Sequence to fold (243 residues):
Amino acid sequence: MFDLTEKTALVTGATQGIGFAIAKLLAERGAKVFVGGVASMEKCEKACKQIPAAIPVVADLLQSSAIDDLYKVTGDVDILVLNASIQFKKEWDAFTMEDYNIQMDCNVKSSYFLIKKYAQEMKNKKWGRIVTIGSVNQYNQHPELSIYGVSKAAQMKMVQNFAPLLAPFGVTINNVAPGAVNTPRNEEVLSDPNILKKIEAKIPCGYVAKPEDIAPAVLFLCSEEAQYVTGTDLIVDGGMHLQ
Fold:
């Protein structure tokens, strides 16, 4: 089960954290994986050394030419995992125009244009898997992540809108929504034992996830076995959204 031999995947934001865990697991199941990074080829290459059959690619998704440049390197892929995102933590009325645009451009705009670019050949081949990585912040009301939450909710709405349009061509599109995960982005906050205790108290499973806890959900949605699953939101948060 979950054999991805002869499949090619692109995972954005894959040099660390959840993206790295996803890329590694897809590769271990047989896929050739393009490991996407933002700016540092050195960082991409370092990640690829730990992932079998991985190829480093760099693309700043805030740049208008980034998606075409990325496609020139990767060509068509069978699996597209959109993990790259940007979040700023501020009070709801403290965001600048730049703060807003950066988050929406990376988390929503680039997702749309990446899907548009790579879905066409998936449709032609009658097979494809697209997975967006969302967040528990689609559901909860984090006092400092309001715009990030809005961007992830908008991304999920794209999944719902595109799923019935792609399904007749054998292409599925789904979202995975992680909760609290111990990644470099969250390292500073989670290093405070008092904050960690408060976060864990909000998670019915009782602990903060590792990136490796999220990756299997993505593997499933990228597999042949998930051919009848599309337009869904797979919440992987230890029950955090229920609180």
